[in-house]
Amino acid sequence: MTELKSLSEDAYLALSHSYAATAAGLTFGVARVPEAVHGYGVPEPGGDTPSAPEPCAPITAPESSGEQSGDEDDTFEQRQRRRGSGTADGRRRPGEQRSLRLSINARERRRMHDLNDALDGLRAVIPYAHSPSVRKLSKIATLLLAKNYILMQAQALDEMRRLVAYLNQGQGLAAPLTAAPLTPFGQAAVYPFSAGAALGPCSDKCAAFSETPSALCKHCNEKP
DNA sequence: TAGGCCATCTGGTCCT
DNA sequence: AGGACCAGATGGCCTA
Known about the structure:
This protein is mainly α. 45% of the residues lie in helices and 0% in strands. The model is unreliable at 1-90 and 175-224 (pLDDT under 50). It comes from Chrysochloris asiatica. Its main location: nucleus.
């Protein structure tokens, strides 16, 4: 199995730094995601009740997840008593509190599942090795890779626009764009993660990124 | 065994 | 009031 170490954040930052010019004009910050995200709730088979055990779900620790299975009411009540009535549900009867808490937990779980689904969708469109033998990109790696990909695409688009303008200038506006296929871009411009670098010393590991370079790979940044 | 990654719970805050 | 979002805490799983 191809082992893929988690990518160092610095590597991503370093890579994206090389596209700083493009990045300068782009802001992706969204303080609060508006309606587009609200109400997207995908109804789970189990409705509001705690969903079926997830791959990592059955946490049996006494403190953190006892109530997911709904069979440790005493612990839950004890905790509620310990915490006092600082929250909105403080004035509720214990049973009511519990069911409200379970409902909130289920909602939060669903929200996180939807978030993970979105991340999966993002992974699906990011150019990296999707082989089953390659470990799935971590969340942070997915986001950083996606960011770099977007920056590279923006740069390529900009480059293309400039080229088209140049061609139109030289050949007259009548020249059809389809007359000559536009293939002026180097691999680096088309493939965002290659950065034009040759395979590093750990090309086997970097192969996880479709033979991409080393800037993304911890191993490549390791000192010999 | 330590460290990375993840899922879940939880309480707080903001918004509708 | 209820829902969405967020961040901290906790514990499990996996890999080097």
